[in-house]
Amino acid sequence: MKTKKRVITVGFGRKKTAAMLSVLGLSLTLSACGSGSPTAQPAQGGDKNPEVKLRITWAGSQVRHDATLKALDAYTKLHPEVKFEPEYMGFDTYWTKMGTLSAARNLPDILQIDTNILTDYAQRGQLLDIGSGINTADIDPSLIKAGNVDGKQYAIPIGANAIALHYDKVMLEKLGIQVPVQGFTWDELIKLAREVKPKLDKGKYLLQDLSVSISGNETDKYEIYQLAQGKGFLHTPDGKFNIDKDTFVKFNQLFAELRKDGIVPPIDVTVANKENDPKLDNLLNGTIMIQRGYAASIGAIDGVKPGQFGLMVTPQAVKSGSFLLPAQFFAVSKESKYPEQAKKFIDWFVNDVEAGKILGLSRGPQVSKKVSEALTYTDVEKQQIDLIQKTAPIANEFKSRPKGYGSFVGEYNKISQQIGFGKITPEQGFDELKKKWQETVGK
């Protein structure tokens, strides 16, 4: 999706404003607006609320874009002095754009950020400590904790989330497959994938190849397996390398066998997947029926095929492979000229019931308990709430990723594909991952 930008204002049009000011004999300095646009009509006796223009960026689906733009409009109607300059795009281009802005020390006032990259931006001194001025009393403490780096609150969660499996409800029902309330074990899932293969048309598969990461943060395709084996996350709470070699090798050998037997798609089909593209997303185009996903992301695929998909908790083995996490955060640039106004907006965004009604679950379930309880939900939104409620009692405790993890993810994706294409062995892949960790995170 191409970057889109528009300035949201509330007030008179340019010509009408100029005419009124001329009649009143008032002078107006346009340079203070930054873009040359006129300010809102000044209050009688002087402008007590000078115009504030907040740059804000986020990534996601069209549903999220539309909902967020409506929320910005609503906020400006409440606070006419606050204007927004929004910039929004798909995930495939977002972090490239943010990297450019970060390097230029030109971050927007308010930016959407995630658990992979938060620590990088915080430890580079580019984010403001927003631990005061925003009400977090109604937000789950574990979600708030994920936005804390080195004892300071650099980010506020703006959506709740849980890792999950997306599945094609319609196809599984046709095959007579009943999804257990707490999901499958790993052994049950693999056995099921083998059993249903003869019933499927050529080129159709029950399960995604979870050993191959394509783009974005897909290290957790393997991570949910390692967690289920009782080996923890891919890093320790203090940011040390924690990929278990024996578990990693076993996992990759398992999926190599599944590829060979035609139980999961061929490697070239897997790497051609493009998330949320109706034609190239392997779940949306019917190539597979189960994939790794998130509670918060089912809305995007439901928008393409309403009522087609469901959510289940991730597979378990000796323990759960599930975890809860913020869907995203909002953070404030340390260079912002309007930090208090930015914090005031974020407080409204997460705590105001009317804001919650506008946003719905476009970023996953609302983080404020008060807001969440005030909303009514569609069937697909009820699925998200239900999945998070099922996950909460069995969730592994999640902590935001260490500095450099975003770079490590890119290296992980490359190495997983090299293993999938047979260019290196799983053992060699593990050694490469350990080396890349030292180069990206360990340094």
From TrEMBL:
<dbReference type="InterPro" id="IPR006059">
    <property type="entry name" value="SBP"/>
</dbReference>
<protein>
    <submittedName>
        <fullName>Extracellular solute-binding protein</fullName>
    </submittedName>
</protein>
<keyword id="KW-0732">Signal</keyword>
<dbReference type="Pfam" id="PF13416">
    <property type="entry name" value="SBP_bac_8"/>
</dbReference>
<feature type="signal peptide">
    <location>
        <begin position="1"/>
        <end position="32"/>
    </location>
</feature>
<dbReference type="InterPro" id="IPR050490">
    <property type="entry name" value="Bact_solute-bd_prot1"/>
</dbReference>
